[in-house]
């Protein structure tokens, strides 16, 4: 068994609390939905973003239905909550690496904790405990995870999103495509940019775990866009317009 899998498998019993606290804290942080909170504050409690526009509790609907300023506040807070959750996950899993001396192996184990936190933060964002499990689609939270976990993957996904948005002015098209490519881009970064140049220092298990985590998130975000996909196929998806 490679060193990363050995550390992870041996950590379940002595560090069970790390494996428990990481997803719980991440889910609770993800359940804080800025789109709902900001909209209520902005409209003095008169409106719920989930009853406006597309009904989605996310950045795009806030932009269309409430305005640019609340949308900016929403996207910043959405990103921050995921960054905080991922950093906490990494901090908790740094405890798991107590016996690991190699800094590369240590970083890979910590990154597993970050992915675990990211997945549950996005789950909390989409199904928030505090708002009757009706939340957003997780795009901004997923982007924040990418940036915190691997800036190279973030830039590849961001580049893809920007190209499609500039061409078609449809946010959902860029978001769905970026989500679908999250897994392949992660494999590209961890295998071709890391494992091939550095050899066995980057164990294959880490490449597989990272790619699988990215695929899970990408598929989840894509499924959350099922209505957008139907509208795209019918040519009915609206181009971005912001309420002033």
Description:
This protein has 244 residues and is mainly alpha-helical. Helix content is 74%, strand content 0%. The chain has one domain. α1 packs across α6 (103-126) and α4 (59-65) runs antiparallel to α5. The longest helix is centred in the middle third of the chain and has 29 residues, at 68-96. The model has no long low-confidence stretch (mean pLDDT 94).
Summarize the structure.
With 244 residues, the protein is an all-alpha fold. It contains 11 helices and no strands. The protein has one domain.
- Secondary structure: helix percent: over 70%
Q: What's the number of structural domains?
A: 1
Mean pLDDT, to the nearest integer, reads 94
Number of helices: 11
Radius of gyration: 19 Å
Low-confidence stretches: none
Characteristics of this structure?
globular; 244 residues; single chain; 11 helices; mainly alpha; 0% strand
Q: What order do the helices and strands come in, and which of them pair?
A:
Layout: H1 3-11, H2 16-30, H3 34-42, H4 59-65, H5 68-96, H6 103-126, H7 139-149, H8 151-168, H9 171-198, H10 204-224, H11 226-234
Helix pairs in contact: 1-6, 2-5, 2-6, 3-5, 4-5, 5-6, 5-7, 6-7, 6-10, 7-8, 8-9, 9-10
